[in-house]
Amino acid sequence: MATYDIAKLHPVFVRQMEALAALDIDAVMKNYTDDAVLLRYEGVSVGIDAVRETFTGYLTLKPELVELQQYVETEDTIFYRAIMNLGGEPEHAFGTLVVRDGRIWRQTAGFGS
Length: 113
Known about the structure:
The protein is an alpha+beta fold. It has a single domain (6-111), classed as Nuclear Transport Factor 2, Chain: A (Roll). It has helices spanning 11-21, 25-29, 48-59; strands spanning 32-40, 43-46, 64-73, 77-86, 89-100, 103-111. Pfam families: SnoaL_2 (PF12680).
């Protein structure tokens, strides 16, 4: 399996991982466009306020990147699979970030094996 140097990946992904690690909701939200949409199996968050509400709840789980298992990017799309600690428990995470004007415009995120 490939090893990834997080600092050398897409700048939006790097900023998002840093903001999540800092548990900083304001820093997280700076990564999203005002018309961002977040799709999860639990529901769809449409617009910046709904995305903020979703991430405010997510940050209570104190997400921590354990291992970036797979990663591929283009100029405007990031696709990843990782192991994250959520509430102290390891979870398999996957998702896609679509970037517009240097911020996340569309995102999919899920957890499972």
